[in-house]
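Lab notebook, bench 4. Still working through the backlog of constructs that have no structural model yet. Next entry is a single chain of 318 residues. Request: give me the structure tokens for it.
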Amino acid sequence: MNTSKKISDHNTDHAVAGAVSGFITRLVFQPLDVIKIRFQLQIEPIINHHVSKYHSIKQAFFLITREEGIFALWKGHIPAQLLSVVYGMSQFYSYHLITKATENFSQFNESKYSIKFVAGASAGCIATTISFPFDTMRTRLVAQSSNHAVYKGLLHCCSCIIQHESSKAFFNGLLPTLLQIAPHSGLQFAFYGLFTDIYKRYSKKTDTSFYNSVLSGSVAGLLAKTVIYPLDLSRKRLQIQGFQHGRKGFGTFFSCTGMLDCLRLTLKVEGPRGLFKGLAPSQLKAAVTTALHFTIYEQCLKLINTVRKLHASEKLND
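Model written out:
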């Protein structure tokens, strides 16, 4: 992002800003993520169906609260926070380094948004691979029923997976995730760069303002999530394979052997609409979280830069 280069020349600043952005965003929007995951893992139709446990965002919100308590909307929050902090830190740090490296090649200057897409896709893959075990544990903790809880917490979940399955289970669904995250992250950064530039052009401002980040981030998140959603659904369904005993009370268990098998069975059993189960809360979450993610990141970099300037000024005065 253009403002990132203007604001700070310290590579570590981008890692810190990314971590802070991930932490705050996750804290605020975890309930939407819990509802989205519950929708994704439900085989029965969602809209107005008498055999389905969850019918809508509002109904799911109140049902989860009534059956499991308000804090159930933050199920798996600790691994989710670890996921968000590690992912945000790795993603923005990697993105900054990659885009900084391309500045040395003049031929890349003509394909500005293509570079943002490639850098964003690469940064997303790096961050995903590093943080993926936290994502698997988060999904397991969110997916389990309170009445048939298998895991007591993060550490217990980790030890059970290692003891009863294998360390490879932490990376179940990594392939569809990487196939999803590469275009998703790439599109996010490319769309964000495009819309921030459009906003600057019409507002005649050279810096990325708070409102610019909010608007550009929300549109970028909405568009990117919609494009790659079926891969996101397959990732969640793959992450609960071998976890049938923790899904009692949630309807039929979805069994598959891989990404293509998951997509094929979903189409066969649930139809084309099945590939987009949970899309509404996912789109809502994507729009608001991406907006918040980029905005906090940009504002955090500005704050760090201000603190550095004040510190440098104090040293000069001394």
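Notes after review: The two ends are 35 Å apart (CA to CA). Residues 37 and 236 are 7 Å apart (CA to CA). Flag for follow-up if needed.
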